[in-house]
Design goal:
binds pyridoxal-5'-phosphate
Amino acid sequence: MSIRYVSTRGEAPPHRFSEILLGGLAPDGGLYLPEAYPRVTRAELDQWRLLPYPQLALRVLAKFIDDIPAADLEALLERTYTAAVYGHARAGERAADITPLRWLEPGLGILELSNGPTLAFKDMAMQLLGNLFEYALGKTGSELNILGATSGDTGSSAEYAMRGKKGIRVFMLSPQRKMSRFQTAQMFSLQDPNIFNIAVRGVFDDCQDIVKAVSNDLGFKRRHRIGTVNSINWARVAAQVVYFFKGYFEATASSDEEVSFAVPSGNFGNICAGHIARMMGLPIRQLILATNENDVLDEFFRTGIYRPRATAQTWHTSSPSMDISKASNFERFVFDLVGRDAATVRGLWATVEAGGAFDLSATPHFARIAGYGFVSGRSTHADRIATIRRVWSQYGVMIDTHTADGLKVGLERRDPAVPLVCLETALPVKFEETIREALYREPERPPDLIGIEDLPQRFEVMDASPEAVKAYIAART
Ligand SMILES: *Cc1c(COP(=O)(O)O)cnc(C)c1O
């Protein structure tokens, strides 16, 4: 029996892994999930406990991928999860662990997911995506032109994953002079000929609108083989499942024990992977979802009401990668919550897509939510500052603003009977301004990134016009 993927809206034909790898939404507008979640046995957990990261990844991902030969997948994983790629581990941690667990005190740890090239957890999945895409395109001899919009983390992570990859070009739009100097330098200093940075005279929403307009021109999209790498891509979610296993093994001595995870959340991709790990049978007690002031997800888990916000009601906060108004991966969890009834999901998202909200509070589905391990909370700028200060003074560890949101909510909502592992989603150097405000000092900067702002930059400035962007792409593909 092969592994098949179905859409949360139930009106798209099932597909194999490689058939959905390069795509985004299913043709019916839904998101892909495996037809049934694979299970891990107690014996597997015992065997996997001491495996190095790429080998663990092979065991976990083989449960989701059965149309890439195991030897090829293994080679891809061994090339992806190396100490050289994830070389930003802190002093005293082993880079070869890929995601080292740092104990702050007994029973309270931070899982370092941000030691990759762009210092944010998105590298964990995106680096694998780069290698998987290159492999899949090589098999068919085809090309892919990735078009994206970024306000920071996703764009740089995509560029560092795709740089130098055969058959792939990246066209990344960002709002001119709206990113931090560090983020701008990270992206614009790339000199690889397959990476195209486009600084748009406008704001992030203009960039996103251009991507939508170009993608809606189906003729152009097909002619120029336009694709995306957004957070709904199934392979990204699958890659993220692996580090929940890794974190669990690092935090426990035996597979009889349970662990809770605290997850700083925006588009629900990271914690969706935790949900899937738990559905597979990994002994996770709680999945603690943390939001910042943009608390659309906290509101749902507290009240059963999902009420996406308008852009104008989305606040710019000091944990900007969690500034979202609707959570693109949330539909995957709701599909499970409503008993995988695609008709129900279609109805709920018809309301959402018309600008509305839905309320599950009175349904038997929401009554079962505790059974999924989810609890939630929110954090504010003042909470972030206080948490960064306390962790620095109490443990001598500097954390970033997103991780601070996770830790704050995690400590509030944790079950004290089991260890709590907080996912570190970025390194503090990416958010220098807030670190200065909290600690009156500069964040530690990895040696290879010192002076990055002074490197020559390669980018194109353009008006906020889909036609200009199309012409630019057409001339290069
Ligand atoms: C993307 C991101 C998040 C949110 O993750 P989701 O998968 O969107 O929930 C949190 N922190 C940082 C630093 C990020 O870049």
